[in-house]
Write a structure and sequence with these properties.
- By secondary structure, this protein is mainly alpha-helical.
- Helices cover 72% and strands 0% of the residues.
- It has one domain (3-275, 300-444): Amino acid/polyamine transporter I.
- It has helices at residues 3-29, 39-42, 54-66, 69-77, 82-109, 116-124, 126-157, 162-180, 187-207, 214-230, 237-264, 285-293, 301-306, 320-345, 347-354, 363-375, 382-418, 433-444, 451-476, 482-507, 513-539.
Amino acid sequence: MHSLLFVIVALALYYLAYKFYATFLSEKIWQLDPNRQTPAYKYEDDFEFVPTDTPIVAGHHFTSIAGAAPIVGPVVAAIWGWLPALLWIVFGTIFLGAVHDLGALVASLRHEGRGIADFLKDLLGERAMQLMYVVVFFLLVLVSAVFVHVIAVLASNFPAAVYSVWIEIPLAIVIGLMIKNKWKVNLYMAAGIAVAIMYAMIWFGVRHPISLTYDQWIVILVIYMFIAARLPVWLLVQPRDFINGIQLIIALFAATIGVVALTAVGGGQLAAPALRAAPAGAPPIWPFLMVTIACGAISGWHSIVGSGTTPKQIKSEKDAKLVGYGSMLGEGYLAVIALLTAVVGLGVAGYEASYGAWGAAAWPAIWATGGGAFLVPLGIPTLVGAAFFAVVAKSFAMTTLDSAMRFTRIAFAESTVTFRLPEIFRDKTVSLLPGGLAIALLVYFRYGMTLWPLFGASNQILAAIALLAAATYLRSLGRPTIHYIIPFFIMIISSMTAMAYEIFMTYIPGEKWILVFIGTVVFICGLGVVVIAYQTWQKTSTPVSKEA
């Protein structure tokens, strides 16, 4: 199979999925109604609930769910060969990931824009909600800790990309202020100028790189995420995500054209085998292919975004099809490109050197150098191309870091009601502290990429629960649930198996007791929600509620 065929097949299947399957789910299953008042209007507060134009919401959601995970996961998963990774990315995205994202978003829109743990109370009761809050909290902590590590690695290994990423922050704030003060400015032009400035800074960074150590970046990032999570969404999150959305489209377009150009000059052949069932030192291909690829196919993190900031900004319920299902297809294509950087961009010698054994692949270098190879036929020097791809990865990792810390604050503040904690813990600053301390602890012990399988398993346990929640809500409306129940069973079996394997085969033998604790708590709480859901379904054989 040739890399160009990779691209053609993925794009064709994603197009057909959006045209037919997404339309079916939106119109027949969820019955999206443009006349229904959305939470953004109902609870408008100019901080979290902010009615926002569709392109900005789509950009925010797209970049918040994408992050660096669909880059890291497929690159690491390439150790098992290109075929299983490609199949899971494409078909997992269409029939599980995008279905999950649409369901989580619509369910939240119908439940006042509340977080998934919060509205689970309406579906399965308070005990399920409490267990879900624990799962969500630990996943958010893991996401934040993983991405602090990811950004620090990228920044310390690719100093030429530093200026471009950090200059985006003041550029986004300026655009945010323009929008807030209703300046007559073309948003696309403003964002395009911001992206042009970012790319111009790549050339500057190549000539004058700024070099800090991994530890120095860790400190900077921990401080930054506290500040960013405390700002209103319109000031930084919305405009930067819109800029990043444009940047991602440019990156995907450049990579796609690069693959075509490689083909034109006789390149683009796959350097990896189709299947490597048992690479040296690697865990079993099932379920760890799914857990490793994570957000590249399906992600519980997306249910947090889809029930966090996104439903508080959507103007029309009809937009859920584009924002929910469509954004996941975009992320799936990013995962395809990431896979190609490993199985094509490295070449045969590069692939063999990087994937000789589990843990040997340095994903930042693979993504940057492999991606840079796609741009060489376009006349872009290797060093500049590598810096360009590093900027893309780091920009999206920064977006995820912002969102994860914000969601940690929101989830903890919401949970104080059900856990009956003092009202002071709902304060927008105080509610940052519990999650921040947990993140700092994981960072302090320097777990790094050791957290990735734990993050992946926790992430997909949450995805399974979100699918179950969507199915429960549909059942209460008397609608078909099969489109959510089948994905639920696939994900709960796979993710629980992966979590148990990591706890007993990796963390306990390695005496990583903090990770044993987190993994065990997430496993038990996830199982508890499933048991409660089973009991609820057994008791209610007919629809139990009306449309929210």
